[in-house]
Amino acid sequence: VVAVKPVVSAPASGPGQVTPPPGQGLFPERAVSRPTVATLPPAEAPRPIAYAGPASGKMIWTGLLPAGGTLTIDGRRTSMGNVNGVLPGVPVRVSVYPAEFSSGGLVVFSGNAKHARGNVVEPRSAQNGWLQTRYLYDAGRAGEVAISEPPGSGNQSQHLQIRSTGKAVPVLVIEWEVAQ
User: What is the pTM (predicted TM-score) of this model?
Assistant: First the structure.
């Protein structure tokens, strides 16, 4: 004779009864686990990459900037003519000089005091388009161009606008120096 035990459902908790811990129910092997939410530390702001390029440089624009006209340089693109070189993409100080081609190379008209002592001649190099470059101190001619919009953080330091305040200009020499 086999004794059969009847299946009895668990009674509700009452006096003297044991209540299983919350989330386990009557069958601990089927315990319901609650998901754990990990708290991550706040993300750090990206650090700017330190500029490791040259501290100064030069660009030469060629074309024809008409009298009263405006030239826009944005990276390697120009609104007219062609430019060799590009601004470094960091804050810079910029000087712009009108220039013209001569039989000896390139003549640049400067109002900068560093050229006031007399003609400054640069040998041929990649920076000056492999042209012998002579800086001639002439504040009047140098004033024929002006920067109307300098490079800045609002334009990723790649945008520059120059206008002609005098006669038409065939060549511009743009010198830049990284701002410290």
Answer: 0.70
Nearest to 144 by CA among 176, 111, 117, 120: 111
Q: How far apart are CA 159 and CA 137, in angstroms?
A: 27
Give, for 121, the enclosing helix (H) or strand (E). strand 120-122
35-38, Cβ contacts within 8 angstroms, sequence gap of 24 or more: none
Q: What is the pLDDT of residues 65-109, one digit of tens each?
A: 999 999 999 999 999 999 999 999 999 999 999 999 998 899 999
| Residue 37 buriedness (CB in 10 A; 0-12 / 13-18 / 19+) | exposed
Is the distance from CB of 175 to CB of 169 less than 8 angstroms? no
85 three-class SS? coil
Q: Residue 65: which of 144, 138, 158 has the closest Cα?
A: 144
Sites in the chain below the pLDDT cut of 50: none
Q: What is the length of the chain? A: 180
> How far apart are alpha carbons 164 and 166 in whole angstroms?
6
Rounded-to-integer distance, Cα 32 and Cα 24, Å = 6
